[in-house]
User: What shape does this take?
Amino acid sequence: MGEEIAKDHFGEDDFKAFRERLARETALLRRIQAEGGLSDKGPLIGLELEVWLIDHNFFPAPHNQSFLQRLDHDTVVAELSRFNIEINTPVEEIAGEGLSRMHAHLSKTMRHCATNAHEDVDTIIAIGTLPTLREEDLSLEMMTPSNRYAALNREAMRGRGGAPISFDIDSSKGGAGFNAAYEDVMAEAATTSLQLHLQLDDRKMVSAYNASLSLSAPLVAIAANAPFLFGKPLWHETRIPIFEQALAQPTKLQRVTFGSGYANEHLIELFEENLSAYPVLLPMCDAAKTDADFACLKLHNGTLWRWVRPLVGRSSDGKPHIRIEQRVMPAGPSVLDMMANAALYFGAVEEISGYIDAAVAELPFEKARSNFYAAARDGLGAEIEWFGKKARRPVASVLEDVIALAERGLRKLGMAEHLIDKYISTVSMRLETRKNGANWQLAQFDRHGDFHRLTADYLANQKSGLPVHEWPD
Assistant: This one.
């Protein structure tokens, strides 16, 4: 959800004071980095998962306030819409059994959420876009009551001069696309994601960030799980264009973006770009906090959704750190699939970081960005460019390389061997069968032509714990 703010209306004095403090905090972060004061802790990993609340008819259940009150769980919080919540896991070391502990925590929390059902909420479901979602579900009345969200919507629309938000998403299957216009940002609520966090020694962060960008295309292809919107088959990962277009601004740099380039010397460059290039949306900082808390910097960064985003935090050693949030993958299909996706990402980043300069020389940023959108549109059927190959290749072929890279990287990171085998074999079988969440949904709908049955069957399979490559159509 992000940090709540004290009010939802602002004057010019609020914006002026916020910009001044944001500039001070950005300069302070740069100074701490230059003096070697950022944390060297890591590798450490974290996870956030956005999920849907649904009723017994498989429609969104807009009751997260009563649901969360009953649940009373400090790692589960509200999201933008009343029918979404976010599950967080504790920070773990990746060495040894860390990913297994994260897996167990996520599974336990999801079971706890499912048993928290009441007459207003039947259960939870982790899926990129809900097949039974209706346009009327995305009204302002469905917004979670929050100063942050109310202000975000108002300021985002003010930045557009009040012009409606236009959607234009084609269909990868050749049918009718989706075209519409909305007067608010609530379409963002049609998307739920798996967000992975990676913290390393500060000296390794630029390499890991650039590796994360280059890996975005194969990651979204293997994980795609959002092929439908309002009954239309669109992109294999329709979540990507929905989120981007829901918060589109009439400026060159967008607030949901693949970014403007690889990082050069340090990830602080991205916070400096935040300061210089992006208007402030939420000019509200806690006066009780000092510049060293980076409250304004965090809040401003929280209104920018790079698909690979830097985040500022404070480590157990008391020093500030910058970590990476990888946002390209959707929620679902199963917990095992999501943890396998995490292992694939963490391992591949570790391996590619070792030769990142050569890699990005062969894969310029513009090609990495084009790869990302091709993979989001066509999933495992996409063709992209990759290191060491000038010609375009099927993304499935690239994924064979990435899986091998990830396996080596996880061994370097010290992950338990049985976990490497468990998670890498899960991804390998998904690739071999060409059955990710998107392909399973498309095949199931082609066979039965019923979104309610699709959602019911999907939920039953998710509850079974089986990885998606073992799901029957």
User: Anything to note?
Assistant: The CA atoms of residues 446 and 473 lie 10 Å apart. The chain has 15 helices and 16 strands.
